[in-house]
UniProtKB/TrEMBL annotation:
Keywords: Fatty acid metabolism, Isomerase, Lipid metabolism, Lyase. Could possibly oxidize fatty acids using specific components. Pfam families: ECH_1 (PF00378). This is Enoyl-CoA hydratase/isomerase. GO terms for molecular function: 3-hydroxyacyl-CoA dehydratase activity; isomerase activity. It comes from Mycolicibacterium aurum (Mycobacterium aurum). Its EC number is 4.2.1.17. The keyword Nucleotidyltransferase does not apply. SUPFAM superfamilies: ClpP/crotonase (SSF52096). GO terms for biological process: fatty acid beta-oxidation. It catalyses: a 4-saturated-(3S)-3-hydroxyacyl-CoA = a (3E)-enoyl-CoA + H2O; a (3S)-3-hydroxyacyl-CoA = a (2E)-enoyl-CoA + H2O. Belongs to the enoyl-CoA hydratase/isomerase family.
């Protein structure tokens, strides 16, 4: 099942399928689409898996093995790719909290987010080649953007699986967090992003005309939140 929790501007989507190591089935795809619909308007979005063993272990092979034609395979790939595209295009910051291993389609799901935070004992890899297939949910293209063409081809072409520290070194993971404090720390980061300025910062970083960027700044400048924060800073000044 897919759980959605929304509080104080932060929407958290959790894939909770312990029997399948949080693998994605066709029904999971439907639930993810519904959760994204409900999360619209959130100031930040977090994606995670239940437990500590798997973030997402890829597609649910037990179910997806029933897809035997090229048309069926293409339909499934396009379905999940559209969900990853929705995540990548979400207007607010998106954090993937890698509570466990992110392999195959799970790695593709992770790179659809803006930011990846990982527990220090997880592994990540685009290892679809082990099944004689390739990434098809948009992850290959996003991997190139994150680590560069040659390194992305090496990783996805060989199926190499990386530790969290190794993935951080090449920019695939943004921050590695000790397992003992992982749940607390990723939530702290996600909550800090659940602010109007972070949403506007993401919009500007995506590329908007200068006038739009300045207009966004001006709206924030005259907001009550800005003046309250400014007053706190001024009161601390000597």
């Amino acid at each position: 099942m897919v759980d959605l929790d929304i509080a104080d501007g932060l929407a958290i989507i959790t894939i909770d399928r312990p029997h399948a190591r949080n693998a994605i089935s066709l029904d999971t795809m439907d639930q993810l689409d519904a959760a994204l619909d409900s999360a619209e308007g959130a100031q930040a979005l977090a994606l995670t898996g239940a437990g500590e063993k798997a973030f997402v272990s890829g597609g649910d092979l037990k179910e997806l093995s029933a897809l035997r034609t090229e048309e069926q395979a293409a339909g499934m790939a396009l379905r999940m790719r559209s969900i990853c595209d929705r995540i990548a295009g979400f207007p607010a910051p998106v954090v993937a909290a890698l509570n466990g291993h992110a392999l195959g389609g799970g790695a593709e799901f992770a790179v659809a987010a803006d930011i990846r935070l990982a527990a220090d004992d997880i592994k990540i890899g685009f290892n679809q080649v082990a099944l004689a297939i390739m990434p098809a949910w948009g992850g290959a293209e996003r991997l190139v953007d994150l680590v560069g063409y040659s390194r992305a081809l090496l990783l996805a072409g060989t199926g190499r699986i990386l530790t969290a520290p190794d993935a951080e070194r090449i920019g695939l993971i943004d921050q590695v967090i000790p397992r003992a404090s992982f749940d607390e720390q990723w939530r702290l980061v996600a909550r800090s992003l659940a602010t109007a300025p972070a949403r506007e910062v993401k919009r500007v970083m995506r590329g908007v005309p200068t006038t739009d960027a300045v207009a966004a700044f001006a709206r924030l400048w005259v907001s009550d939140e800005h003046w309250a924060a400014a007053d706190r800073v001024l009161k601390k000044s000597p």
